[in-house]
User: Fold this.
Amino acid sequence: MKEKIKNIFIEGPITGSFIGEKIASHQSKTAIGGHSIFLGQVRGDIIRDKTVAAIEYSSYSEMALSSMHNLREAIISKYALTCMHVYHSLGKIKVGEICFFVFTSAPHRKAAIDACAETVEQFKAEMPVWGKEIFEDDSHQWKVNQPL
Amino acid sequence: MTGTRELVLEGITDTDQLIREMNNRFPCLKEMPCLLAVDRHIIHSNTLLREDQELALLPPYSGG
Assistant:
């Protein structure tokens, strides 16, 4: 499936209505039997007595978009997906807001579920996206991804 | 992390030389394990450079 490179980045949080619209827009794709959705939400971690208030995301977007394009093609092909969408926020995202949205669709549930899980892990490992944890006192530190 | 988003360098012939030059200009980089991308491809060993290539120092990712 050769498609042009999609822009996965959204300024600000990913809203519930955006997610709902994306789900609704697939109702016409009658080959789909199952969707799997992952939502990454900013967590209010407490690190050495300081509470995270927000994460500010930035990206080397030229490289991220082409890497994501390659990942998308590989996952769609591996799992024979009907459809796949990935979105990630840029900018300051508050605790409780959604910053990451992976949505995979296939005729049967196993492909959709497995593809969604693999996409989440590959994204976290491979995409040049960074989060700066901003604490309630306005100090910050750079986030480090943890395995599972 | 260095406070500089973009830099134009001249007279750098390979990536090992680039890393030395960057570490000299920004000593904090020595503490930070970064990947190096040349024209948006990660490289893992010393690579000869041509003029006008885009290089990026990438700290550990934390997206998703």
